[in-house]
Amino acid sequence: SSHFGSRLRLRQSTSCIRPRGTHIALGPYRLLAMLSRLRSPLSQGLQSARRASAVRGVTTSNIGGYEVFDHSYDAVVIGAGGAGLRAAAGLVGHGLKTACITKVFPTRSHTVAAQGGINGALANMTEDDWRWHAYDTVKGADWLGDQDAIQHMCRLAPEVILELEAFGLPFSRTPEGKIYQRAFGGQSLKFGKGG
Known about the structure:
The protein has 195 residues and is α+β, with helices and mostly antiparallel strands. It contains six helices and six strands. It is elongated and about 65 Å long. The N and C termini lie far apart (45 Å). The N terminus is likely disordered.
C-alpha cells in the first residue's frame, strides 16, 4: 500500500508524463492538514532515501526512439490549480522533493477559469464565523463529508486566504481595500438561520 514519503519514478518522453509505482492518494485538504502537523525534522528513512536519489541524479535511456528521463520524487502533486500549487508549496516548504504535474498552464486551471471566488470566514462584508462555514459545508455534503477535515479546512481558511494574498494572489477589493466577499449558494449565517 502507498504511504506518505513513498518514492515515485516519473518517465518523461516527448509525448507523455506518467507516474509509475506508488502514489500519494490524498486530497489536497487532507494533505494540507497532514502537513500542518509535520513540525519535526524528516524521518531518517526519508533523509537517507533523498541522499541516495541526490547521488544518483537523473538517468536517461533510449526507448523506442525516445529519450526517456527517469526522476525520483518524495511527492507528486497532480494538478496546478490553487489547491495543487498550495499543496506543492507546502511539500517543498517541508523539505520534500516535489513534482507538480498539470495538463494545462497554471493560469488556465479551473481555479482561475471558475472565477467564483474562495470561501473563508473573513467577516469583511458581514458578521461571519468559521463554524457557520463548517456547518454549511457539512450540510452541503448531505452529512457525507469528512467532518474532521471540513472543520480543519474551515477553521484555517481565513489564515490560508491571507497567506495566498501575501503570496500575491489577486483578489477583488472593497472601496476600503478589504478582500471582497459575496455569498455563494448554500451559504448561511448563524448555522442556517440567515444569510
